[in-house]
């Protein structure tokens, strides 16, 4: 499941057999991956090596071995590429003595903009994150959600092509969370590459279905959730079909291509057919034809374990 | 065009003036302490010795040897006299550098400034250079600036007595000395600052370095073991400076030995900085 690449078009971020040792502890082990445009979630439990891999990809940690390239270049060897990269760190520690405006202006100045451009971009991004009223206040007085927003603003304010967001929604209120999710999706649709690191699965699921899954320092899988789900043979995908004639439907499905198990489940609001398939995509493609050709009735189709959470659970055996 | 009308734009060089990253860091760091009123008062106090020396020079140039007797080394307008003046500023150097420099890297490490800085087009040398410039600026503010003012003042009140040396050679000597000393001190201070995330920790080490070693040196001198004065951290800078100012050694140590010690401190500081400053996030 490794090496196929996630996101679309050419790889903007690529890692070739990268690894990182901290003393005798291996944090990341021989990871190879590539990321194109769009939003991609980097998932892993705490301690899985996610943060280390993330920072290596962002050019902030030097790999012990292997190579990371962004736009085909090593970021630390040619720091000019950082103008096209945005990074939002996980920790909410910020220079508390600076005001929001000072902080954002400084971050933009370091990108190489003149004063007029810095002011223009600072105003826009403060406004975009509803921070204009708090712009003159010191960061030390900001709430956790506001700090998260100013961190996001500094990562996005220079219009980067490649954006690294480490736990970007931590501490945000529901409204800000929704705005930020929408913004990330919008940026992805604009053709930017956004790598979102998180251990909160629904958060990632709300932004993208393209994921890289890491566990115990290794990349377990990369691609879309459905693609990955299909490639877990020991856990066939479970689909529930709600029908007025469950017994006939179940009898028909037994022995069909991609179907490895069928049973009828009695539910309080009626029966349903539980189908286990070893190739969910193939099954979904074939199902409408079977229904039409054989005059079957299916009122509702539910995928019971095609979620990111299920994929994560199966792959990491947690 | 306003940024919100432009949509998705890649970075392009700005038409206006753009400062290099090290200068942006330095300007920001220099401006920050000036906002504190008590620091400004301290800065004014740091100029008092220069005012006193200026007064003594005035009387010397106007009243001749009588003022010389009163002022001692303070009245000297020879290069040595200015090294003595810089040496006399060590209390302010110690205090200012501790206040301004102790937190320069430590707070960045604590506040994730390093990962934020290094996710921008900024190399390690630019970062260290910018931070060092902040320390050098404040060092020069209490040493080099008064020397310049005193040189010009002395020349203006008695051009025939002082000569062009006071306008050219002495300021040149002072400039070279202060830039090299300020540069070296800044690297040592930044190295200490890079070793922790708490400013107070750096201040303690800086106090031990400056006051502690000076005390040890003074005790050693009192016990007749002059060579132990080589431990005097700031003293070695002044002692090495005597080579540049063509003046007698300031310690019972060969000035070349002091120079070697200063170079060793600087090299060690660079090694520490290169190994300690990493764009790694501190998760609290």
* Structure class of chain A: alpha/beta
Largest interface: A-B, 47 and 40 residues
Mean pLDDT of chain A: 86
The number of helical segments of chain A is 10
Beta-strand portion of chain A reads 25-35%
| Uncertain stretches of chain B | none
Alpha-beta content class of chain B: mainly alpha
User: What form of chain A results from the Cα inertia axes?
Assistant: elongated
Order of helices and strands of chain A: EEHEEHHHEHEHEEHEHEEHEH
- Uncertain residue ranges of chain A: none
* Number of alpha- plus pi-helical segments of chain B: 15
Identify the quaternary structure here: heterodimer
Textual characterization of the structure:
The complex is a heterodimer of chains A (318) and B (284). Chain A is 32% helix and 30% strand. With 318 residues, chain A is of the alpha/beta class. In chain A, the strands form two sheets. In chain A, strands 1, 2, 3, 4, 5, 6, 7 and 8 form an eight-stranded mixed beta sheet that branches. In chain A, strands 10-11-9-12 form a four-stranded antiparallel beta sheet, covered by helices on one side. The longest helix of chain A has 16 residues, at 174-189. Chain A is elongated and about 70 Å long. The mean pLDDT of chain A is 86. Chain B is globular and about 70 Å long. The longest helix of chain B is centred in the first third of the chain and has 27 residues, at 37-63. Classes of the chains: A alpha/beta (318), B mainly alpha (284).
């Amino acid at each position: 499941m490794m090496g196929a690449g996630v996101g679309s078009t050419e790889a903007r971020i690529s890692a070739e057999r990268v690894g990182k040792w901290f003393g005798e502890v291996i944090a990341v082990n021989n990871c190879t991956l590539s990321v194109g445009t769009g939003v991609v979630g980097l998932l892993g439990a705490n301690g899985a090596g996610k943060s280390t891999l993330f920072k290596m990809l962002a050019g902030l940690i030097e790999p012990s071995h292997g190579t990371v390239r962004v736009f085909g270049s090593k970021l630390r060897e040619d720091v000019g590429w950082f103008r096209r990269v945005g990074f939002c760190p996980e920790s909410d520690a910020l220079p508390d003595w600076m005001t929001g405006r000072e902080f954002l202006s400084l971050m933009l100045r370091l990108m190489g903009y003149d004063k007029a451009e810095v002011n223009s971009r600072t105003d826009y991004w403060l406004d975009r994150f509803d921070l204009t009223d708090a712009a003159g206040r010191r960061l030390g007085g900001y709430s956790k959600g506001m700090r998260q927003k100013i961190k996001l603003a500094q990562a996005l304010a220079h219009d980067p092509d490649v954006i690294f967001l480490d736990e970007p929604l931590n501490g945000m209120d529901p409204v800000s969370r929704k705005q930020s999710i929408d913004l990330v999706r919008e940026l992805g649709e604009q053709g930017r590459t956004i790598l979102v690191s998180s251990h909160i699965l629904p958060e990632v699921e709300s932004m993208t279905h393209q994921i890289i899954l890491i566990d115990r320092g290794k990349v377990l899988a990369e691609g879309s959730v459905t693609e990955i789900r299909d490639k877990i043979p020991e856990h066939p995908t479970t689909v529930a079909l709600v029908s007025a004639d469950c017994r006939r439907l179940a009898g028909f499905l037994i022995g069909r291509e991609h179907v490895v198990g069928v049973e009828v489940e009695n539910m309080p609001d009626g029966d349903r057919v539980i189908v286990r398939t070893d190739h969910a995509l193939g099954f979904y493609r074939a199902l409408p034809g079977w229904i039409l050709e054989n005059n079957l009735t299916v009122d509702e189709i539910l995928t019971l374990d095609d979620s990111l959470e299920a994929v994560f659970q199966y792959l990491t055996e947690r | 065009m306003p940024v919100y009308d432009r949509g998705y734009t890649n970075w392009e060089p700005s038409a206006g003036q753009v400062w290099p990253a090290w200068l942006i860091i330095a300007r920001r760091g220099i401006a920050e302490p000036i906002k504190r009123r008590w620091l400004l008062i301290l800065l004014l106090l740091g100029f008092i010795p220069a005012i006193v020396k200026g007064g003594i020079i005035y009387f010397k140039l106007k009243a001749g040897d009588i003022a010389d007797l009163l002022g001692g080394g303070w009245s000297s307008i020879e290069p040595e006299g200015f090294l003595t003046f810089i040496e006399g500023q060590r209390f302010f150097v110690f205090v200012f550098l501790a206040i301004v420099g102790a937190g320069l890297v430590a707070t960045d490490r604590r506040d994730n400034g390093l990962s934020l800085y290094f996710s921008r087009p900024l190399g390690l040398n630019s970062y260290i250079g910018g931070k060092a410039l902040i320390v050098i600026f404040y060092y020069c503010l209490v040493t080099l600036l008064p020397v310049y003012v005193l040189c010009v003042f002395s020349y203006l009140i008695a051009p025939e007595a002082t000569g062009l040396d006071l306008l050219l050679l002495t300021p040149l000597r002072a400039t070279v000395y202060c830039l090299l000393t300020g540069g070296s001190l800044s690297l040592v201070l930044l190295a200490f600052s890079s070793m922790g995330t708490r400013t107070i920790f750096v201040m303690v080490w800086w106090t031990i370095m400056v006051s502690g070693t000076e005390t040890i040196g003074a005790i050693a001198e009192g016990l007749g073991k002059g060579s132990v004065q080589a431990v005097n951290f700031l003293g070695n800078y002044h002692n090495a400076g005597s080579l540049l100012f063509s003046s007698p050694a300031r310690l019972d140590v060969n000035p070349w030995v002091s120079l070697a010690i200063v170079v060793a401190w600087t090299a060690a500081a660079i090694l520490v900085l290169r190994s300690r400053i990493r764009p790694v996030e501190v998760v609290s």
